[in-house]
Write a structure and sequence with these properties.
It contains 10 helices and 7 strands. By secondary structure, the protein is α+β, with helices and mostly antiparallel strands. The protein is globular, with a radius of gyration of 23 Å. Strand 2 and strand 3 form a beta hairpin.
Length: 280
């Protein structure tokens, strides 16, 4: 959505009936008289929410942020597409929901699995374009997505990162199928340990060590034989990750990239006389 998330802005846009369903599903805010006329305003709901224990309040905040981030035309298209894969026609359901936020809130409540996967796809679509790399000469075959294959792939990524970067001691790989042709593989290797400062339950400042995971994304199209890779690092890092993907997911050895497989050829733009005619 164009504006930054803010709790009261979220509550103003959300339909009261959907908010009641959300909080009821969490076993919360049963004291609010949802059926009253007029309906409870956003200040009443906000105050009741912020009177809850800190952990519960934070969990609701995370849910609302995830819903808000997906609430767009693109986000709605993504959940509808994912619903089709799960043999669920969301188009009719969402017609009764006013606005993108309420459509996504409805999906969060009624179809949590579809919502979860759509969030993954939406996140991948919004990743920094400069970190993506495309290879067009991949083998065209059905990828191996068994638990065993994903485990070996994760172990191979972990071994490579530990050897070259001193991180990645643990790694998890999840996979999802999208648009009936593309397989998304999300790898989450363990990053370096860091320290962050936050407030404890008593409102005191604390320094806490934490070890986050970072993200590597592989998008494989078996029909076109392409692999889009999101990873931070130089050319050698990305080539090795491509090789590991091909070895463990496609059961093939990846050779040298063909020169004509590059997705774009921009040399012509260097010439001063270059013309780009378009159909008026």
């Amino acid at each position: 959505m164009p504006n930054q998330y803010a709790p009261k802005h979220f509550l103003r846009q959300a339909q009261t009936a959907l908010l009641q369903q959300y909080f009821s599903s969490q076993g919360l805010l049963s004291d609010i008289k949802w059926a009253d006329t007029p309906a409870p305003d956003d200040e009443t709901i906000f105050s009741a929410w912020h009177s809850l224990p800190e952990e519960t309040k934070s969990k609701i905040e995370r849910d609302f942020r995830d819903i808000y981030d997906l609430a767009s035309a693109e986000g709605v298209r993504t959940v509808v597409e994912e619903g089709q894969y799960h043999k669920t026609n969301l188009t009719t359901e969402l017609e009764t929901c006013d606005g993108f936020l309420n459509k996504i809130l409805h999906v969060f409540i009624k179809h949590p699995r579809i919502f979860e996967i759509a969030c993954r796809f939406d996140h991948a679509d919004s990743l920094n374009g400069r970190c993506w790399n495309k290879r067009k000469d991949m083998p065209k075959k059905k990828p191996e997505v068994s638990k065993e294959a994903l485990g070996k792939f994760a172990a191979a990524i972990s071994e490579y990162l530990q050897k070259t970067q001193g991180r990645g001691e643990k790694c998890l790989v999840d996979t999802y199928y999208r648009n009936r042709r593309r397989n998304y593989f999300f790898a989450y290797p363990k990053d370096y340990t860091d320290t962050y400062i936050d407030y404890d339950s008593e409102g005191k400042i604390e320094r806490r060590p934490y070890t986050p995971a970072f993200e590597i994304v592989f998008v494989y199209d078996s029909i076109d034989g392409t692999l889009d890779l999101f990873a931070q690092g130089d050319k050698d890092v990305k080539q090795e990750l491509q090789r590991l993907f091909t070895l463990h997911i496609l059961n093939e050895k990846l050779g040298e990239e063909k020169l004509d497989s590059a997705p774009y050829k921009l040399e012509a733009l260097k010439h001063r006389g270059f013309a780009f005619p378009v159909d008026a």
